[in-house]
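User: My instructor asked us to take a sequence, write out its structure as tokens, and then describe one feature of it. I'm not sure where to start. Here is the sequence I was given:
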Amino acid sequence: MVVFLLFLAFLFGFLALAALFVPVLQPWAFDPIGLRPESSLYRFAMLSAVIALPFFLRYLHLNSWQYAGYTLAPRAAWKALAKGLLIGITIMLVLNAMQWALNIHHFAPRADRWNAAYFLRTLVSGLLSGLAVALIEETFFRGLMHSGMRRRLSFWPTALLTASLYAILHFMKPAPPGAAAFDIVNAFRMIGAGIGRVGDFSPIADSFSTLVVAGVFLSMVRERTGNILWVIGIHAGWVMIIKLTRYATEPTVVADQTSTWIGSYDDITGWLATLWLGLIATIFWYVSRPAAR
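Assistant: Let's start with the prediction itself. The structure tokens for your sequence are:
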């Protein structure tokens, strides 16, 4: 639990640091490149955290590839990554098929973008962005945090805490500055408003539950396989198919409302996705064998 609290303090500490420095830097560093204050706060905090991460990991004695979950030889690592990618793609395609069958989504690509070249570009960019997102997020959550917390905690507290933090961070990005001047006080208000989105739980409960279940499932894969490459592949496959889904389909609107099975966060996560991932996680946990520790 101490390791989890230290990771929590690390992340929120850099958000506070951003609130102190970004209002001063915004006019000459971020405005010229078109970054709005809310984006500047988030990106400055994440960049600062990345720079400081090696020192933080050394303090926790987690500064090795082994602790991050990279335990396979190169050839086995590439195979695990590829197999994980295929699994992630399959999981998301089945979810899409269920959403299509229930008329939650329908085929509706933009006419000016529905061609082979744009489809291929979307496919490649989805794969690359999926790999980039999965590499960063999974190395941090299911790699380093998982390893650090498993020193003292059993699997389930580790999985639930990392999955909950993973889900929370998707919803707590800083709010826009509004009409007030962008100063240090307003910067802290923007961060507080972002955190407040999580407190207003009802509108995000469906998508939040999906992200928690997804995080627990990825922790299961990390625990059972003993490495992070399967996890990165699965996560990248999800992101790639989500990008293709947004390219080719639209949520079906009936009586000015979309289906209660999907959430407003991205029109894909929601109660149906939660049930589907929960079923997969349950089956996987009971049919897989623990990795040698």
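For the description part of your assignment, you could build on this observation: Residues 116-150 form the longest helix (35 residues). Try explaining in your own words what that tells you about the chain.
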